[in-house]
């Protein structure tokens, strides 16, 4: 006897994906108007992930009859794809079909949300990178735009091919959460900082470990200078240390903050360092003199992240107080406060052309903002906290790291937000 889906489950499976086939290579709409205005055409099927009866594709005897008939065991597909997945169960596994289902539901949510905030659809989900086994804390895209690096609480850094979505390398050796990752401007070196203060540097081409040392305080955040030899680190001790590789002795130490440094950026001159901290401030310090040359005050919570625009005149900070602030770097003035997130904002990035901001927050969302109009133009809803965002160097991709241990890759069309506001 087959454990068929009840009618309510069938309808629910279709609605949850907007009646679009869940096969990411298909995406065929499955519902439309009939010539009879009182009727509709449906070419969609609620297919079983694990077969409805013994001998069927992917049958799982451990499931109860109720579980086989539930929405958890179903996936919406067009008739062709439904036939396809049941004809080759070795290829179309339970794991793969569940990934299709999750992606299709995520895309349906994005389609609904695309017109809900700014009426523009700038970013479209293109892939989900699965492999980490714990929170993803940081992401960065390589200078050639082809690979993304992700740092995780599983104590590893993974390198992914953006086109194929495959993990092509895993960097191991850390003994604590990896909380920060950075790639040198020439794309040749990877640096990763961990919660125990350890810093490791690898050759990104060969995967060879080149150096390992310790910041001298917990929670090492790392950033490269303009060349492949200058590396900066900040930590829970509130200090910035500058390193000249391959020497693993710090060349300069700056007392930047009274509390933990949560993000560090080295400007193109290699002499100015931007830091944000749990002390509610952002600061610009000069390495050559050790002095703090600018303090940015106004946030009412910890400042978790900072990004500097390509013009080097503007920077954006993200805070525990649920806001982002846009600053004039030279004057130290707050030009705008961006509100919309309903929880801690963990990370911020600026597109290479300086026109768009991406922010990731504990409200399980990424918000895309137009810098000129200071308006949110799109919200990307996720199923868990968003801890990391990064644009590719040419601005066509956005990587998002989440507490669900996954990295999401979006394609970005900057033309969609030109003239916003």
Explain this structure to me?
- With 421 residues, the chain is mainly β.
- The protein has helices at 7-16, 65-68, 79-87, 94-114; strands at 31-33, 40-42, 44-48, 74-78, 123-129, 136-141, 147-152, 157-161, 167-171, 178-183, 189-194, 198-203, 209-214, 221-224, 230-234, 239-244, 252-255, 261-266, 272-277, 282-286, 292-296, 303-308, 314-319, 323-328, 334-339, 345-350, 356-361, 365-370, 375-381, 386-391, 397-402, 407-412.
- The strands form nine sheets. It has a four-stranded antiparallel β-sheet. A four-stranded antiparallel β-sheet has the order 6-7-8-9, with no helix packed on it.
- A hairpin with a 7-residue loop joins β16 and β17 (252-255).
- The mean pLDDT is 93.
